[in-house]
Design a protein that fits this description.
By secondary structure, the protein is an alpha+beta fold. The chain is built from six helices and seven strands; from the N terminus they run βαββαβαααβαββ. The mean pLDDT is 97. The record marks 71 as: Transition state stabilizer.
């Protein structure tokens, strides 16, 4: 692992994680290149900001569940190859019901150069501290559809409120939101704004 990168769970206490791309539970349907263990890795600057987010979430009765932080460039390259493969239908209904694979890139849901590869971008959600249940956000991780956009129509008041909680927590902690994905936040003052790393999560 590169200097200044750490396993997030070793630095930020009291978080949960489920590294989706290390598992079969992601839009490609299998573990993705570069994810060799179910852990999340990020920069130390990211972890310092995440500690602030954790504290703000706790004050509202929530905890943080992380799906992805650092993403090796080889994983992004795998996404691009996958997008060119024939559709098998296994994950389409759940993750990209109204678009075809190549449109994920065209519509901004997946990037050929991902902010995640710089080490300070996170995909995450909230869970209720009293029950451990995930907060209802009106859609799961990596649902590549307009329902995942901030301000999406057709979600309930509770779902909109939960998204607003997550947004305020992250923005107050030094992160910026991404219009197309309610779960995606990038550290504003990231330490490697122009570097895309490719070491594996191992």
């Amino acid at each position: 692992m590169k200097d200044d990168f750490v396993f997030v769970d070793e630095v930020v206490s009291g978080i949960r994680w489920d590294a989706k791309y290390a598992t079969w539970d992601n839009f490609t349907g299998k573990p993705v290149d570069g994810y060799l263990v179910n852990r999340v890795v990020g920069t130390r600057a990211f972890c310092a900001a995440l500690e602030k987010a954790r504290d703000k979430a706790e004050s509202l009765g929530f905890g943080l569940l992380l799906w992805d932080v650092y993403r090796p460039q080889r994983a992004v390259d795998r996404f691009m190859r996958w997008a060119e493969e024939p559709e098998d239908g296994r994950k389409k209904a759940r993750h990209y019901p109204n678009i075809d694979r190549p449109q994920m890139f065209e519509q901004g849901y997946v990037a050929t150069k991902s902010g995640h590869s710089r080490g300070s971008t996170v995909d995450l959600t909230l869970y209720h501290l009293d029950t451990g249940e995930l907060a209802d956000m009106g859609g799961d991780h990596d649902v590549m559809d307009v329902v995942s956009h901030h301000g999406a129509a057709g979600i309930t008041d509770e779902q909109e409120k939960n998204r607003a909680h997550l947004c305020s927590i992250m923005e107050d902690s030094g992160f910026s939101s991404y219009e197309c994905e309610w779960w995606h936040y990038n550290l504003k003052n990231e330490p490697y704004p122009d570097t895309y790393f490719d070491f594996p999560v191992a």
